[in-house]
Amino acid sequence: MTSDTPPNMMAKRFRGFLPVVVDLETGGFNPHTDALLEIAAVTLTMDETGNLLPDQTYAFHVDPFPGANIEQAALEFTGIDLDNPLRKNVALSESEALGEIFKPVRKALKSHGCNRAILVGHNAAFDHGFLNAAVLRCGVKRNPFHPFSSFDTATLSGLVYGQTVLARACRAAGIEFSNSEAHSARYDTERTAELFCAIVNRFKDLGGWNLAMREQSMDEE
User: What confidence tens digit (pLDDT) does each residue in 12-52 have?
Assistant: First the structure.
């Protein structure tokens, strides 16, 4: 949050929610049986004119939970090498990784005057399902994210740019995208954050969200 930004501007824009961009890399498609292998989140902020901006990135390798299924096809798609010593040295348990993600999200909620985080993802239902399954496995009692609502940039990009694939949507929005770096949680999350901000800011510039009028409306409620 910039020093000139009112602390409640984000809350007014999204009805008390704080958008947080999340991407997960996994060992398959089933959130209840397949491993969570990487998790990344990008918090967002606003400038004094109400433009949405990426703020901080948090990304972690994750050790598969005991008994987790890992499909070889998933590893080939993501390029994740579970035996890489560099990965082994830094990978966290699911519980530790969730804690490292949730801590700054809670801090951002407080600084922006928001009540709850809302997950932003490209095909958000996939990431949301795996996040909720990990939260359940780890017995997390204070999940800062809304349990079922989310913002899906695949849907939004289809509306705004006529593209639903992340790489194509980014390029349509004028955002550079490297296919060689894709499918890591950090890279995909950062590009998704840029894409979401571009969509929200474009809507504002077209007159879809007027900061002054919105503040007046909120004050009258």
Answer: 999 999 999 999 999 999 999 999 999 999 999 999 889 99
What's the one-letter identity of residue 197?
Answer: C
**Amino acid letter for position 123:** N
- CA 40/CA 189 separation, integer angstroms: 6
Assign 192 to helix, strand or coil: helix
Burial class (CB in 10 A: 0-12, 13-18, 19+), 72: exposed
Is 146 a residue of the active site?
A: no
Place of tokens 């499909």: 71
pTM: 0.91
Rounded to whole angstroms, the Cα distance separating 38 from 135 reads 15
CA–CA separation, 104 and 167 (whole Å): 28
β partners of residue 120 = 21, 151
* Residue 193 half-sphere exposure toward CB, CA atoms < 13 A: 26
Residue-wise pLDDT tens digits, 115-140:
999 999 999 999 999 999 999 999 99
Q: What is the side-by-side order of every strand in the sheet holding 145-152?
A: 52-61, 36-46, 17-26, 116-121, 145-152
The proportion of the chain whose per-residue pLDDT surpasses 70, expressed as a percent, equals 91
Helix H or strand E segment including 213: helix 211-220
